Amino acid sequence: MFVDRLIRKIKETNNPSVVGLDPRLEFIPSHIREKAFKDEGEGLPGAAAAILDFNKKIIDSVYDIVPAVKPQLAYYEMYGIEGIKAFYETVQYAKSKGLIVIADGKRNDIGSTAEAYSSAHLGSAAINGKKVQVFDADALTVNPYPGYDGIKPFISDCELYGKGIFILVKTSNKSSGQLQDLLTQYGKSIYEIVAELVNDWGKAQTGEFGYSSIGAVVGATYPNQAKILRGIMKKAYILVPGYGAQGGTAKDAAHCFNKDGLGAVINASRSIMCAYQSEKWASVFSEEEFEKACRAEALSMKDEINAVLGTA
Amino acid sequence: MFVDRLIRKIKETNNPSVVGLDPRLEFIPSHIREKAFKDEGEGLPGAAAAILDFNKKIIDSVYDIVPAVKPQLAYYEMYGIEGIKAFYETVQYAKSKGLIVIADGKRNDIGSTAEAYSSAHLGSAAINGKKVQVFDADALTVNPYPGYDGIKPFISDCELYGKGIFILVKTSNKSSGQLQDLLTQYGKSIYEIVAELVNDWGKAQTGEFGYSSIGAVVGATYPNQAKILRGIMKKAYILVPGYGAQGGTAKDAAHCFNKDGLGAVINASRSIMCAYQSEKWASVFSEEEFEKACRAEALSMKDEINAVLGTA
Question: Are the Cβ atoms of A106 and B110 closer than 8 angstroms?
Answer without folding.
Answer: no
